[in-house]
Amino acid sequence: MLDKGRICGPWNTKTAIQGKKNIEMHRFVVHGITRRRKHPSPWVPCEYIFGHKDLKICKDWFQHLISCINNESGRPKNLMVFVHPLCGKGRGVSNWETVYPLFARAKIKTKVIVTERAGHAYDTLSSLSDIELKAFDGVVAVGGDGLFNEILNGILSSRHKVSYPPTPEGFGYVGSSDNCEEQTRNWVNFSKPTPDSGNAVFLGNPSKCDDQEPLLSTSHPTELEIPSNSTKEPCIGDQDNPVSFPNDWFRLGIIPSGSTDAIVLSTTGERDPVTSALLIILGRKVSLDIAQVVRWKTSPTAEVLPTVRYAASFAGYGFYGEVIRESEKYRWMGPARYDFSGTMVFLKHRSYGAKVAFLDTPYTHSLTASAQDDITGAQPLQSRWKKPRKIICRTNCFVCKEASTSGQNPEDVADNSRTICENQKWVWSEGHFLSVGAAVISCRNERAPDGLVADAHLSDGFLHLLLIRDCPLPLYLWHLTQFTKKGSDPLSFKFVEHHKTQAFTFISSHDESVWNLDGEMFQACEVSVQACRGLVNFFASGPEL
After folding, report:
1. Which of 3, 54, 145, 339 is catalytic?
2. Range of the domain at 1
3. Is residue 357 part of a domain?
4. Where is the DAGKc domain (predicted)?
5. Into how many domains does the chain fold?
6. Has 145 been annotated as catalytic?
7. Residues lower than pLDDT 70 in the chain
8. Does residue 96 form part of some domain?
């Protein structure tokens, strides 16, 4: 409600007036959303001012509109917000100050926590009781992909009970055991989350996280314990019923403030804090696949100790991991150390011996060069095979909808490995690789406009496994530079293997490199990874490209 006065407002105010403009009226304002004229995607707030000479009529309309808004069940009422104060060159606090009035105007209650150290968000969320968590409709990260990864692991660490990923016969570990009660104590190291910037000199690390960089401790690793998991579905009215994932009511969101913001770009198509805030306020929701990564061993001689981590965008070994590890030597250089480290790792041109087994399913397609081919050439695959047409994930994507209505029951969705173990067929790939990576989503960013995998979908239940075999340095540079060109196909080289799969296992006989999980280092020589379809809900409506 507004004071009595004339109908007037700023340039973007739209008016609906009964009578003459010069007379004073009782007024109320409706806050809405519109699009900028010169750019079709970013949303901006606008105001609609209504007036009438009768105060009762204004109040009746006001109460009726308030009632309609309150009856929209999808809109969040209470949110927990983590603000990273030093992410993206210190943009976290300023971005939150920009969008907070929108949340206040929409009467959304927010509990704001400004992070003070690495692992702050993880510790807070993992220590929350289910009763405390049920008081919120979701958690929002004002930061980049690194802060979001910390929130993701903090929530899922004790609330996502699922069998370990399936493993090939003869691997030696039970990957699909249903006896998760024995898996009670695992450990996660959040001491060295990787800052945003990764290997930005080439294509931009798809999950660079300098949003965590200023808060890191490089000398005292902090081991954070993951307690045993829970399988029951949440019941909002029953506080004794534990929260578990996936569910329909809890959502995660990001107000983009990092250096790349690959998750936001892949889910909304825009890197705009106001647009993301408005999507959160309206309660827009999409399901996101999450990669469950199980580390069996940290080194070839280490004991078998399964450790679970989750990644929302990318998991990579070799080149991607070495850029992270190399950058730790040059912390005094600030953000420039990532460009420098990326160049150094590239010039070393080191390959890593490994074996990778991926799960072949009826829906799996593989775009690979034959292992017997001469991988020193650069002949694109399309000259020998007709490649399937790429279907890009967009708003109301029919591929994601078909996956969500594929006939799986709720138990199968909660325990993905139980579904993909049926009629499983494993395909092995062995050799020396420059990098081994798995993209959960497209991983779009400003340096790679199409991302690592242009046709990766948000919730189809698949990973895109990328195996880059050893090749001459100029060809590898050619491959990397293709990511910077929109519409190019960097995966069509003969030394590149691209497999769309639901799970894979990686084995290295040497302690040569580290894994990059959403930009955070993860020491492992044997890992199993599976896609958990639609594990979390995200405040977005899909990429509007």
Report:
1. 145
2. 1-8+20-71
3. yes
4. 74-297
5. 2
6. yes
7. 8-22, 37-41, 88, 172, 174-240, 331-332, 334-336, 362-388, 406-423, 544-545
8. no
